[in-house]
Write a structure and sequence with these properties.
The chain is an alpha/beta fold. The chain folds into two domains: 156 residues, Alpha/beta knot; 71 residues, tRNA(m1g37)methyltransferase, domain 2 (Trp Operon Repressor, Chain A). The protein contains ten helices and nine strands. A hairpin with a 2-residue loop joins strand 8 and strand 9. The radius of gyration is 22 Å and the shape is elongated. It starts with a strand and ends with a helix. The model has no long low-confidence stretch (mean pLDDT 96). The protein binds S-adenosylmethionine. S-adenosylmethionine binds next to strand 5. Specifically methylates guanosine-37 in various tRNAs. Its EC number is 2.1.1.228. One of its GO terms (molecular function) is tRNA (guanine(37)-N1)-methyltransferase activity. Its main location: cytoplasm.
Length: 243
């Protein structure tokens, strides 16, 4: 997976580049991350990337021209790599809200150019002319698109085959099969008076699977009941549920 990120704060992406599973995926060459700073595409002495809004009002608006040049450069880099299927994605609170279905849909691209806004946002004409998709990470407003871009990248990178130590672990997470994940326990057997459920220490794999499934169902119904109506159950799971 190839990511080009248009950002005024490239150093922030150390959080994805230098740590944990995402950092390892980049080090192994499973993921490539390039940051392009709009300031490097300005032509004035002050390297201006923002201006006051037409019509007045508070805040500044990101200039279209340096962003357009940065996007064109990112597109050229993608073409050099032979990547055809690379949409320009603007992280925006007005975009489609990211969820597991969205992450799966984005997985089909060879890569993407992620556009991170700052200030009041970006000149609308740049969005009209250059942006293919807008994605939001939730109904609240952040100061910039960098954290949303990293959220999107992390959610995609961990679904690339062989990026996780154990591919099965991503498959068992919340939302993948429509249910929330079951609770997890590790050592010690007793922590401040609370014991690990006996079944998890029984070594009986089918009983453990059944217990985990029923825990997932209970949690989903209690915490996110709206998810449960869309879940497809196997015959075995239906049997467990009706026992
Ligand atoms: N004036 C804009 C509005 O109300 O729609 C908000 C601008 S926000 C202060 C600055 C930048 O942060 C946006 O251009 C966008 O890139 C990013 N951003 C803020 N909240 C976001 C969210 N929930 N999801 C994705 N991006 C977000």
């Amino acid at each position: 997976m190839w990511f080009a990120i248009i950002t005024l704060f490239p150093d922030m992406f150390a959080a994805v580049r230098d740590f944990g599973i995402t950092g390892r995926a980049i080090a192994r060459g499973q993921v490539s991350v390039t940051c392009l700073n709009p300031r490097d595409y300005t032509h004035d002495a002050y390297r201006r990337v923002d201006e006051r809004p037409f019509g007045g009002g508070p805040g500044m608006v990101m200039l279209a021209e340096p962003l357009a040049d940065a996007i064109n450069h990112a597109k050229a880099l993608a073409a050099e790599q032979g990547l055809m299927n690379v949409p320009v994605v603007y992280l925006s609170p007005q975009g489609r809200k990211l969820d597991e279905t969205g992450v799966k849909a984005l997985q089909h691209y060879d890569g993407m150019i992620l556009l991170c806004g700052r200030y009041e946002g970006i000149d609308e004409r740049l969005i009209q002319l250059y942006v293919d998709q807008e994605w939001s990470i939730g109904d609240y407003v952040l100061t910039g698109g960098e954290l949303p871009a990293m959220v999107l990248m992390d959610s995609m990178i961990r679904r690339i085959p062989d990026v996780m130590g154990d591919n099965a672990s991503a498959e068992q997470d919340s939302f993948v099969d429509g249910l929330l994940d079951c609770p997890h326990y590790t050592r010690p057997d007793t922590f401040q008076g609370l014991d690990v459920p006996d079944v998890l220490k029984s070594g009986h794999h089918l009983e453990i699977e059944k217990w985990r499934f029923l825990q997932s169902v209970t949690r989903t119904k209690a915490r996110r009941p709206e998810l449960f109506k869309d879940v497809t159950l196997s015959k075995q799971q239906q049997k467990w549920l009706n026992e």
